[in-house]
């Protein structure tokens, strides 16, 4: 397979992206190839610093960059020669099999939706994160910011998408799907939570186990935890903030070390017709390496095809 990497994306690009690509190249199989997308001169210069053979990679030139502060939709249109825009062109025309970037997450989402499109039947694509569990396992939390104003049918689909990802990428058999709420009893929460609970309770498309409270997020009570993007983003940044504070104060522990974002690399955009991975803006070389390895795993899991099949037999009617 060919994995496209936005060399210019991220706070520490291109130094971290090229270093991460070199780390990943050592772990990928000989049949896998990384396609470096960005300013050719910069790419060759960084490879030379590592005394690396440019022949290990394919290089696609892109002379422009979308900044983190730019409006995603406007930037995709106004900067067709940016590394993100070029990456999506490569993906759309199947010259690469997956595309990964630690650049503007908004531009990555807009690019994904407008270049490879949603899977038919998916109302809103979403993104997820991994939550380490005390017993050594992990759970998925979604959505983490793509859809701040999700409705119940969208939330129901999050449960389905998360269940498929947990089963096929993280090899969790019959994943338990829970709804993040302020109480575990049925009837708790705001109108969105209550309506979503009823849909999930009546649906038969995944293993819904009821509500989960935030204090139980790390106690292995659920494999997939569903919330709207507004709540998920606040929760994610709260966890990141706590992890950074613990590291700053020298509090180390094998379990808490698993919260380091570097370990996971990024998140796939779920619900689109291809493999797109969005990395953290502050990604270092290790995070970039893991982002590329995640792209490989998601591609080989054939997640998009499995989501299509699952939607063709969904039991809950949702608006399109």
From TrEMBL:
<dbReference type="Pfam" id="PF02504">
    <property type="entry name" value="FA_synthesis"/>
</dbReference>
<dbReference type="InterPro" id="IPR012281">
    <property type="entry name" value="Phospholipid_synth_PlsX-like"/>
</dbReference>
<keyword id="KW-1208">Phospholipid metabolism</keyword>
<dbReference type="InterPro" id="IPR003664">
    <property type="entry name" value="FA_synthesis"/>
</dbReference>
<dbReference type="GO" id="GO:0008654">
    <property type="term" value="P:phospholipid biosynthetic process"/>
</dbReference>
<keyword id="KW-0444">Lipid biosynthesis</keyword>
<keyword id="KW-0808">Transferase</keyword>
<comment type="pathway">
    <text>Lipid metabolism; phospholipid metabolism.</text>
</comment>
<dbReference type="GO" id="GO:0005737">
    <property type="term" value="C:cytoplasm"/>
</dbReference>
<keyword id="KW-0012">Acyltransferase</keyword>
<keyword id="KW-0443">Lipid metabolism</keyword>
<keyword id="KW-0963">Cytoplasm</keyword>
<dbReference type="GO" id="GO:0043811">
    <property type="term" value="F:phosphate:acyl-[acyl carrier protein] acyltransferase activity"/>
</dbReference>
<keyword id="KW-0594">Phospholipid biosynthesis</keyword>
<comment type="subunit">
    <text>Homodimer. Probably interacts with PlsY.</text>
</comment>
<comment type="similarity">
    <text>Belongs to the PlsX family.</text>
</comment>
<dbReference type="GO" id="GO:0006633">
    <property type="term" value="P:fatty acid biosynthetic process"/>
</dbReference>
<protein>
    <recommendedName>
        <fullName>Phosphate acyltransferase</fullName>
        <ecNumber>2.3.1.274</ecNumber>
    </recommendedName>
</protein>
<comment type="function">
    <text>Catalyzes the reversible formation of acyl-phosphate (acyl-PO(4)) from acyl-[acyl-carrier-protein] (acyl-ACP). This enzyme utilizes acyl-ACP as fatty acyl donor, but not acyl-CoA.</text>
</comment>
């Amino acid at each position: 397979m060919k994995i496209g990497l936005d060399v210019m994306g991220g706070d520490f690009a291109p130094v971290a992206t090229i270093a991460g690509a070199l780390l990943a190249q050592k772990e990928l199989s000989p049949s896998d190839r990384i396609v470096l997308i960005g300013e050719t001169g910069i790419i060759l210069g960084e490879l030379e610093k590592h005394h690396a053979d440019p022949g290990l990679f394919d290089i696609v030139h892109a002379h422009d960059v979308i900044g983190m502060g730019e409006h995603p939709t406007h930037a995709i249109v106004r900067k067709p020669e940016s590394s993100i825009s070029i990456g999506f062109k490569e993906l759309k025309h199947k010259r690469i099999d997956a595309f990964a970037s630690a650049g503007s997450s908004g531009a990555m989402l807009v690019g994904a939706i407008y270049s490879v499109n949603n899977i038919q039947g998916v109302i809103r694509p979403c993104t997820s994160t991994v939550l380490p569990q005390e017993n050594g396992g992990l759970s998925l939390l979604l959505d983490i910011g793509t859809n701040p104003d999700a409705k119940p049918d969208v939330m129901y689909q999050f449960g389905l998408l998360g269940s498929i990802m947990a089963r096929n990428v993280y090899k969790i058999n019959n994943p338990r799907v829970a709804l993040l709420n302020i109480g575990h009893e049925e009837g708790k929460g705001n109108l969105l939570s209550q309506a979503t609970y009823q849909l999930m309770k009546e649906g038969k498309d995944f293993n819904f186990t009821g509500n989960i409270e935030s204090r139980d997020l790390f106690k292995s009570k659920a494999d997939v935890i569903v919330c709207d993007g507004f709540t998920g983003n606040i929760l994610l940044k709260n966890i990141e903030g706590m992890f950074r504070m613990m590291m700053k104060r020298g509090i180390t522990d094998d379990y808490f070390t698993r919260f380091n974002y570097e370990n996971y690399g990024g998140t796939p955009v779920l619900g689109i017709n291809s493999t797109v991975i969005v990395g953290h803006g502050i990604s270092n070389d290790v995070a970039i390496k893991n982002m590329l390895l995640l792209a490989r795993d998601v591609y080989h899991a054939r997640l998009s095809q499995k989501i299509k099949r699952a939607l063709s037999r969904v039991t809950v009617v949702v608006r399109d």
